[in-house]
Amino acid sequence: MTDLGRPRADLRRTAERYRSTPVEGVESRHAFSFADHYDPRNTHFGALLACNEETLAPGAGFEPHQHRDVEIVTWVLEGALAHRDEGGHAGVVRPGMVQHLSAGSGVRHSERNVGGADVPVRFVQMWLQPDAFDAPPAYGLRKVEPTVDGVTLLASGLARDEGTPALRLRRSDAALHLVTVGPWLPLPELPEAPYRYVHLTAGSLGYRTVPGPKGAGRSMEPGDSVRITGEAFVAPTAGPDGVQLLLWEMHSPLSYG
Fold this sequence. Notes:
Oligomer: single chain
Number of helices: 0
CATH architecture: Sandwich
Low-confidence stretches: none
Shape: globular
CATH class: Mainly Beta
């Protein structure tokens, strides 16, 4: 699905996302084929299977449901999300916290707007293919302290990141980063990988598609994403309100069989 022979920065606007309302009070916007939305040309990028923007109204949520062999990472934008699973894990995810559920051999969990809330909860949820299958389910939740350089590691399966506070993924060649910079500043040096996926969560961003004079200028707003291969995504620079984005670093695509 992805040609690694030429650099590419494939921008997808938030309005292009598939929209669904699976239950009352829930709105989901999907970056890839998901649930009832199927496009054979848009099933994944690298090892990333889903990147959903979810909004749960007060009192709304997803009742207990099953997952298997998928890494689920959640980043809350506004409000608070209550998680509970059959392994006895319960947590409330708020802005500035990252949650990881490794479904492994199978786990049922529920997700709801936290009890008593009078505002919606908005969050980004991302699904990654593991490279260790049928493992016992695992759960992690931590508060994130942004680093001075603007690139904060949230979750990783890479050997280089062992011993860090990052949540551990069951994908040995992938990592998720939070990138935050102030108004009009260039982004710091970003991790390199054959597949990189950027999801913009706040502020705005400008970049060029490839190096040199042939690189066209592009801009991003909250909810936009860009799928990057090779030396694309050149000179990214924050807009007037700064920028916050999530960056997946992936060194291999989906594996089959």
